[in-house]
Design brief:
Elements: H1 3-14, E1 18-24, E2 30-35, H2 43-60, E3 66-69, H3 74-89, E4 94-103, E5 109-113, E6 119-124, H4 130-142, E7 146-152, H5 166-170, E8 176-179, H6 184-199
Helix pairs in contact: 1-2, 1-6, 2-3
Length: 205
């Protein structure tokens, strides 16, 4: 397991963003865990998370020209990732995000930031339904750009026999998926290590 993967799991557990139990997802499916990226809500968390995303993207070797963060949680994620790519990997990439409703005044439209162009990498938290993916793909293609792939925090957490995220399989348009590469078993193992370390008054890092 890569260091950025351990860093991500540790952050998720410390912020209670990753919880284990029995949960019903928006799609109606039941899950043994629930991931809430909304709990990464301060500067330190954004800094660490952006670094994890950037490291995963760089390691994947996936070619792309800019980032796109779907509203709403994808917006801070794409922003933090762009900052980390520039600061930690000397790669300055443009990014953009969308509004849920098109703006009727000022610059108008529903895309904020750099105009969608070239190969666009979608950055989001958890994509559990094909509709979320298709919406992003539609916006990117409508602008005449190409979908390079998507980066999702918990892509590797999905319990799926084919080891391909449901959203990726829903549409062949999804292209490559850049995930943390961390599965549920690994997350539980790290959680157990932290619990044992805490019981011995040893800080897990």
């Amino acid at each position: 397991m890569q260091q950025y993967q351990l860093t991500f799991i540790d952050l998720a557990l410390r912020r209670d963003a990753l919880r284990f139990g029995k949960f019903t997802l928006k799609s109606g499916r039941e899950s043994p865990y629930f991931f809430n990226a909304g709990l990464f809500s301060d500067g330190d968390a954004a800094h660490v998370l952006g670094g994890c995303y950037a490291a995963a993207i760089v390691r994947s070797g996936l070619p792309f020209d800019m980032l796109f963060g779907p509203a709403y949680k994808g917006i801070p994620l794409a922003t933090a990732t762009a900052i980390a790519l520039a600061a930690e990997h000397a790669r300055n990439v443009a990014y953009a995000f969308n509004r849920k409703e098109a703006k009727q005044h000022g610059e108008g439209g529903n895309i904020v930031g750099t105009p969608l162009q070239g190969r666009v990498l979608v950055v989001d938290d958890v994509i559990t339904a094909g509709t979320a993916v298709r919406e992003s793909l539609g916006l990117i293609r409508a602008a005449g750009a190409e979908v390079a792939g998507r980066a999702s925090i918990s892509h590797g957490f999905r319990r799926n026999r084919s080891r391909v995220a449901p959203a990726t399989r829903t549409s062949s348009d999804s292209q490559s998926a850049v995930g943390s590469g961390v599965n549920l078993k690994s997350a539980i193992a790290v959680s157990t290590m932290r619990s044992r370390s805490s019981s011995r008054d040893v800080t897990y890092r």
